[in-house]
Amino acid sequence: MSVLTWYLAAINFLTWVVYGLDKGRAKAGKWRISERTLLLLALAGGSVGALAGMLMFRHKIRKAKFVLSVPVMFVVQCVIVTVLYLRMRG
Length: 90
Description:
By secondary structure, the protein is mainly α. It is 82% helix and 0% strand. The protein starts with a helix and ends with a helix.
């Protein structure tokens, strides 16, 4: 597997975990992870993990900032990965 594949797997797993941790902290009334951090993780390549976390943990699904930006990041990242894959292939 390529470095890009490993990176995307790691950043998406990390993002999913962080979204889950933040949801747990929200329920417990504890210190929260900032929205900026959550969005930066998605922007850094973790959009799949962010979407999965939003849906699985029902977290940030009422925040327009997340509902709009995370899917846009996902689409942009899919285009970037596709272009990189096609360039590497040939």
